[in-house]
Amino acid sequence: MTQTQILLVEDENLIALDLTHRLNNLGYMVVGWVPSGEEAIVLAAQLSPDLVLMDIKLKGRIDGIEAAEQIKAQLDIPIIYLTAFVDKATIQRAKITAPFGYLVKPVDERELSTIIEMALHKHQLEQQLKQYRLHLEELVTERTAELARSNQLLQEEINRRQKAEEQYLHDAFHDGLTSLPNRALFVEHLERSLGHARRSGKYLFAVLMLDLDRFKVINDSLGHTVGDQLLITTARRLESCTRPGDTVARLGGDEFAVLLDDIKHVDEARSIADQIHQQIASPINLEAHEITITTSIGIVTDVKDYYRPAELMRDADTAMYQAKAQGGSQHKIFDVQMYTQAVKRLRLETELRQAIEREELEVHYQPIISLANKSITGVEALLRWVHPQLGNIAPSEFIPLAEETGLIVSLGQWLLEKSCAQIKDWHLAGYQSLRLAINVSMRQFQTRKLAEMVKLVLTDTNLTPEALDLEITESVAMTSTELDLVCLRKLSAIGVQFTIDDFGTGYSSFSRLKTLPVSILKIDKSLIKDLVSDPDSQAIVTAIVAMAHSLKMKVIAEGVETGAQRDWLQAQRCDEMQGFLISPPVSAETLTELLQKIGD
């Protein structure tokens, strides 16, 4: 079969090289590439290719549309336009040349092949129609009735193809799931607003970037069908919060954008953001599930110093991530300090990815003490990062970053491997009853491989499962899915214990608590801080201890710093404690010395 020969007209070398490579991979032959309209006219006449891929904006005196007009006047070659931005005036000019399709840059490979095949097929049909018309003209005197019918059918085909072309153009600039404008059309509208703002000093607009909080959890636990319906509902709710001249777009995944055009004051953006929060948070019933979701919003209102849409979207995105980092379900207006923090955060993320290889991570251990006999019953393994230039980086700075980026999964596995091996060494040294407590994040549960990873580490280190205590936060415990419970029960079945960490800081359902394979409650240090002087803290801690013991659970108090706190907890029959009163988190060597000292 003869390869389809294509002439490529593109003024950007990298794009031309990329397209040439893609076309070759798809089985087409690029017989020539030129960057200007003048060269395109000459080369098309010389090569007579099967098809021309024509960029609209070109180097030289004439653009792609003028070049297409001249090629069409001289040669019968189908032309497909390439463009990054499409305005109405350009579309009207382009339509005059009767193009065989449009491709929006960056070009999707499947769309590239589809449009080319449609153009070739359409061109072939048109050639056949021309021949058919000639034949009809020869028979017109004796087949008038048939000619009328053929013309009618032909007009119907033309109308159908025009509608198909219009539909394709719509699809190229709209999201297939929600029918909202897509990124390309949003950028075009944003470019238009920027131009208006540069021409008029009084013109104001605002950009909102939105991301649904915990959408991945819902999508993974309830399925993609529910997730898609949630996105469609979100799209309609966003449209209900905006004005007729505004643009609501879906950029991809659960990320949306809103362009508030021609606002009178920045307070309008805040007001609409408040409406969006209220609308998005309304419960949704999808396939017998009542779902409540929130959104984080980043806003840019001071637009006078911007020249490119990408800069506006970047800064709105930065503000959105700031809102998400502070717990979500809120909006933040961008300021320059956010950009500085984002750059610092990006650098920290890059270096954190390399921290394991560079051996910058350390494990520190904080002892857990029995209040009954003052012996060390266990240790909590805590990750520490010693950066060669920045020094000790606080866990509060890099752990949330690891959670957000997913690095917590590999860091958590490294921490488990190191600390299990160390506990085994202490067991061999004579401290056989020592337990290991280690935190597990929601991200690690979401991988659906936590149980297998823990079992493998226990096997590799030859550590008995009963010596391992996995700590999960109260919020994770209360929002765990059925798949999370399956993981907990698998590990509990082999002897691994579970602790609810930071207990008392959130809302816990006691009926829910009974369904979890939990054997220890760890009271949050915020309740221990003012324990001796605050009656409310005393009442809460007393209730937790009584409730835990009634459920046959052990209680550990963390953050114990004074002897008075220790004595009060002991009087309330709290089982164990940890805190600076005994020792801060220390290296394995220092803890070994502490074990020997307390043992003596």
Task: Spell out the key features of this protein.
single chain, 600 residues, alpha/beta, Rossmann fold, Alpha-Beta Plaits, TIM Barrel, 3 domains, 8-stranded mixed beta barrel, 5-stranded parallel beta sheet, 23 helices, 19% strand
Record the SSE blueprint.
Layout lengths: L4 E5 L3 H13 L3 E6 L2 H11 L3 E5 L8 H11 L4 E5 L4 H9 L5 E3 L4 H30 L5 H29 L10 H17 L6 E7 L2 H8 L1 H18 L5 E6 L2 E6 L5 H15 L3 E3 L2 E3 L3 E6 L8 H17 L5 E3 L2 H20 L5 E10 L5 E12 L3 E3 L1 H11 L2 H21 L6 E5 L2 H5 L3 H12 L6 E6 H6 L2 H12 L3 E7 L6 H6 L4 E4 L1 H5 L5 H16 L3 E5 L4 H9 L4 E3 L9 H12 L1
Parallel strand pairs: 1-2, 1-3, 3-4, 4-5, 11-12, 14-16, 16-17, 17-18, 18-19, 19-20, 20-21
Antiparallel strand pairs: 6-8, 6-11, 7-8, 9-10, 13-14, 13-21, 14-15
Helix pairs in contact: 2-3, 8-9, 9-10, 12-13, 14-16, 16-18
Descriptive overview:
With about 600 residues, the protein is α/β, with parallel strands linked by helices. It folds into 3 domains: about 5-170, 3-Layer(aba) Sandwich (Rossmann fold); about 185-335, 2-Layer Sandwich (Alpha-Beta Plaits), CATH 3.30.70; about 365-380 and about 410-600, EAL domain (TIM Barrel). About 50% of the residues lie in helices and about 20% in strands. The chain contains 23 helices and 21 strands. An 8-stranded mixed β-barrel has the order 13-14-16-17-18-19-20-21, surrounded by 4 helices. Strands 2-1-3-4-5 form a 5-stranded parallel sheet, sandwiched between helices. Strand 3 (about 50-55), helix 3 and strand 4 (about 80-85) form a beta-alpha-beta unit. Helix 2 (about 35-45) runs parallel beside helix 3, helix 9 runs antiparallel to helix 10 and helix 14 (about 410-430) packs parallel to helix 16 (about 450-460). The longest helix has 30 residues, at about 110-140. It starts with a strand and ends with a helix. The mean pLDDT is about 85.
